Amino acid sequence: MEASMQGTAVATPEPHPAPHLRAAWQSAESFCIKCGFCLPACPTYRETGVEASSPRGRLDLMYAVAQGRLPLQAAEHQLWFCLGCLACETACPSGIRYHDMLEAGRIDSTARRSHGLGLALQRVLLLGLLPSPTLLRLVVLGMALYQRSGLRRLVQATRLLWLIPPLARLEARMPPVAFPVSWRGALREPLSPPAHPHAPREAVLLTGCVMDAAFGAVHGATVRVLARNGVRTLLPPGQTCCGALHLHAGDEAGAQALARRNIAAFEDSGDAAIVVNSAGCGALLKAYGALLAHDPQWKTRAGRFSRRVQDVSEFVAGLSLAPPNRLEVRVAYDDPCHLLHAQQVREPPRRMLESIPGLTLVPLREADMCCGSAGSYSLAHPEMSLRLLNRKLDHIAASGAEVVATGNPGCLLQLRQGMQARGMAIRVAHPVELLAEAYGLR
User: Fold this and answer.
1) What is the DSSP secondary structure assignment for residue 86, as one 8-state letter?
2) How far is it, in rounded angstroms, from Cα 151 to Cα 312?
3) Worst-scoring range by mean pLDDT, 39-48, 79-88, 370-379, 399-408?
4) Tens-digit pLDDT profile for residues 129-167
């Protein structure tokens, strides 16, 4: 009897090598019909002409992995070569949620590549640096001192970094960095105490990680513009990095942990709008409900949190603005991918700029195309990133603009680095900074 039972035993099936991709494929509401509308919208396809580097090509690869017809390793290059700009979703007539498949594939890829120096360094950045405002400010301070002390000129003149090519590429692409504004006292002063303690309306500002360390001037401009229009800005003390870079890097658990911290930190502010001046952060904050959809203890709280989130341009669009002063300047607006394609916010930032008397909003060709920053993409794929940046800079130069405005830290850094490398005398600014200037609130 025992031998008979052993003979009929059923072997335990092997776990699927890409469980997240398989789950995303099985739950997809629509599938690619190969219409090709995504092709002209995809930056990597336009640059390479390679079908596998297009959204429908990548979906084919991911579908094959999910169905067990292709090993995950065969699709990994294209999973990471994608910018994640989501222009394909805007172009897709079938409403395919491409980013669900992409994020699932990257999560599986990161799980498969559980060892290695590169992954270890990435974890140090994501888990150690970004969630720590103090450490991040120290890094930004070091970069600013390096650029202004003459050390950078010495390093470049002696070509010391040529012995370490990755560091040489990183140094060459370092954008102009300002000293952390909070250490100059210019950021915290307008935020605490609020400019209008008895304002009839309140909003809550996400300070984030990179924005807080390197773009405190944008936070200051945001708070001053809101105060000028009767809105008191609150700063929850327990907030942290939004987790967007973690999720894009395949670290779903890290992104979920940060989401829980932010949700808990913002709950004491009631139903006040959560104002975000970073497009990438705003896109993920609005998706916290989906990120924690399978967590019974947090999904309801996450959904309530996401419904409160607004880009600063959306929030300003709902105000009766005090009239700004004239600002005689020609401005080209470049859409951040995660504001236009992920959040579907196009007109509010343009209306905010057009509300400034004297400001001329000039047309910018391919304003809806990625500049090549895409989080850490410019470091992982410097050649493609530079091709896209040069294409963007050509269009900016042809526009005749004196200022290019965009609302995401990665885009701001990428464009500033490009302007510096080319010697272009065009300023790069956040739209809310220009509105603050028109109010005389610099």
Assistant:
1) -
2) 38
3) 370-379
4) 667 777 777 777 777 787 777 777 777 777 766 666 666
Q: Where are the domains of the chain?
A: 19-112, 329-438
Torsion sign, CA atoms 307, 337, 341, 58: negative
The Cα 427–Cα 429 span in angstroms is: 6
Greatest pairwise CA separation for the chain in angstroms: 93
Q: Which alpha helices (H) appear in 241-381, and where do they start and end?
A: 244-248, 252-266, 279-285, 288-291, 299-306, 312-317, 337-340, 347-354, 377-380
Statement: 329-438 belongs to CATH 3.40.190 = no
Whether the CB-CB separation of 2 and 89 falls below 8 Å is answered with no
pLDDT band at 113 (very low <50, low <70, confident <90, very high): confident
Q: Which two tokens stand for residue 401?
A: 């603009």
DSSP structural state of residue 407: S
Q: Which CATH class is domain 19-112?
A: mainly alpha
Q: Return the amino acid letter for 26.
A: Q
Q: Which two tokens stand for residue 348?
A: 């509010």
**Rounded to 5, what percent of the chain is helix, strand, coil?**
55, 5, 35
Query: Counting every residue, how long is the chain?
Result: 442
Beta bridge partners of 333: 405
